[in-house]
Amino acid sequence: MVFHRVNKLFRKGDDEVLYEPIETPYEVLHDENDVRRPILVLPDEPLPECQQFSWLDYTVFMLLGIAMLWAWNMFLAAAPYFQNRFAGDKAILSRFQAAITSISCITSLFCMLILTNMQSKANYLGRIILALFLSLIVFSLLSISTSHFRQTSPTSYLVFTLIMVFFTAYASSLCQNGSFAYASSFGRPEYIQAIMTGQAIAGVLPAVAQIVTVLGAEDPDKSASDLVRAKTLSDDSATAAFTYFMTAAGVSIFTFLAVFLLVLKQNRILRRSLKCVFTNFGDTNVTKRKPVGMLALYKKLPWLSAAVFICLAVTMFFPVFTGRITSVRTNEDSRLFRPAAFIPLGFLAWNIGDLVGRLLTLGPFSVGRISPVILFVLACLRVIFIPLYLLCNVGGREAIIKSDAFYLIVVSGGFGLTNGWLCSVCLMSTGYYVEEGEREAAGGFMIVNLLAGLMAGSLLSFTVSGVGT
């Protein structure tokens, strides 16, 4: 380098040239002691079609998010129907909800662990289709059971219900694993956010339906006998459950058609035919993916996986409190402040906050701006919301802060908003910390941590189960 510059001082005839191209000799460019740093080169050509954002793709992934949690929310919405079916056995009546939750959480976690380890020949699109098909069958059978086989014993119907819960959880695991992995393969974090938004919508709509049902219901005829009123209540709950289950089946069909359109659109890009997708779930694997173990992913995503786990573990405390907090307006005649409507209103406030939080990730608070360590710290700070619930009217006792607005907006809405935003950002950030061939596996890996957090939170929530009783 020095000899080259000294040489130029003694060159003649260069004074006439005022400007010349900046060139570096070959030997200088290839100097062994030279430190070469990467630079960003912007291509003149547009992004490949598979990496361009599409609202059609976004909508399909949002529908997949709705389908994932819609089934579970229908089980929750049909709780009065199950109470009537199990009314003949007090032991089952008091434990069926816990049994449904336990079967669902355990099945989901173990299925996700197995599916995550099946990477090399995994057909994630095939898993999505199989999940929708299973959901359609399960909820068709549940719909039939609301009007037929009404004379079966509570024990027999509980066994049937738990079998349906098992297959629902299995289908949900297939759909979650397949959808997040499939969306990750597109290289667009917006599609991950679309799934998260769909999940939030699946929580909002059933809560709205419950509130409308309560507000629109007629007051029971006080002159009727107890037997007549019990039969009317049983018929109404069966009709409502039939509507819930058929809606879940309809969501599966509609989502299936949407995925079909997405496959048609991506057929050329993915280099696979529809025939392979529907007839062979294991052999259709054109994209080269790099199998990676759970431990390797933990090393690459330590803070993000921990943040998702803690976030969901803390979140699982909210159903315990929300199901027991009533309005401080005990003397109001409005049905909205009665427990039958106010409790679903609390769930609605949380789910609306969750939806808003997920939508915020499309704005200035999106991925790439916050480090994983900070996300982990924020997840830990969400524990603050648990004592805030104790300031409200838990179990009908005197609230420390006598304000329904404080409970609905600050506590429930804030708790949901932080959950939706934090989970979305963590999942959307995953692709930035793994190689391109590991994105699909990383998507499934993060869902394993999400489900593990849900299960851990469910168990930890028993520590506050006696509050307000």
Sheet/helix structural class: mainly alpha
Distance between the termini: 82 Å
CATH class of the largest domain: Mainly Alpha
What is the strand content? Answer: under 5%
In quaternary terms, these chains amount to single chain
The coarse overall form would be globular
Taking pLDDT < 50 over at least 5 consecutive residues as the criterion, the unreliable ranges are: 12-47, 272-278, 281-287
Mean pLDDT score, rounded?
78
Based on CA atoms alone, the radius of gyration comes out at 28 Å
CATH fold call of the largest domain: Growth Hormone, Chain: A
Number of strands: 0
Q: Main sheet?
A: none
Helix content: 55-70%
CATH H-level homologous superfamily name of the largest domain: MFS general substrate transporter like domains
Tally of separate helices: 18
Overall CATH architecture of the largest domain: Up-down Bundle
Query: N-to-C SSE series?
Result: HHHHHHHHHHHHHHHHHH
Subcellular location: Membrane
Pfam families: Nucleoside_tran
Protein name: Nucleoside transporter
Main location: membrane
